[in-house]
Amino acid sequence: MMSFSFPLRATALACVMACLPQTGGAWAQSYSTGHTGGRAGAAQPVSFSAEQVAHGAQIYAGACAMCHGADLDGGHDVPDLSTYFTARWANTPLDRLAGYIAHAMPLMAPGTLPPQDTAALVAFILHHNGATSATNAPLPMEEARLAKFRFPAPITQPPASGGKP
Amino acid sequence: MKRRDLFAASLAAGIAGATRRRGWAATPEASAALGRTALHGTIPHLVPIRAHADQIMDIKVCLRPFRPAGPRMDVERVAGKTVVHNYGHGGSGWSLSWGAAHIAVGHAAATLERRVAVIGCGIIGLTSALTALRAGLDVTIYTRDLLPHTRSVRANGSWTPDSRIALTQQAGPEFAKTWEQMARYSWQTYRDYLGLPGNPIDFRDNYTLSDTPPDAADHAPTPTDPAKGNFATTGAPQSSAEFAEYASRISDIIPAPELLAGADNPFPVGYARRTPLMIYNFGAYGHLLLEEFHQAGGRIVIREFHSPADLADLPERVVINCPGYAARDWWNDKSLIPIRGQTSWLPPQPDAPYALEYKGAAMISKSDGVMIQGYDMYGLGEMDGVGNSFEHPDRAEAEKAIGIIEDLFTRFQPRNG
Question: What CATH number corresponds to the domain at position A75?
Answer without folding.
Answer: 1.10.760.10
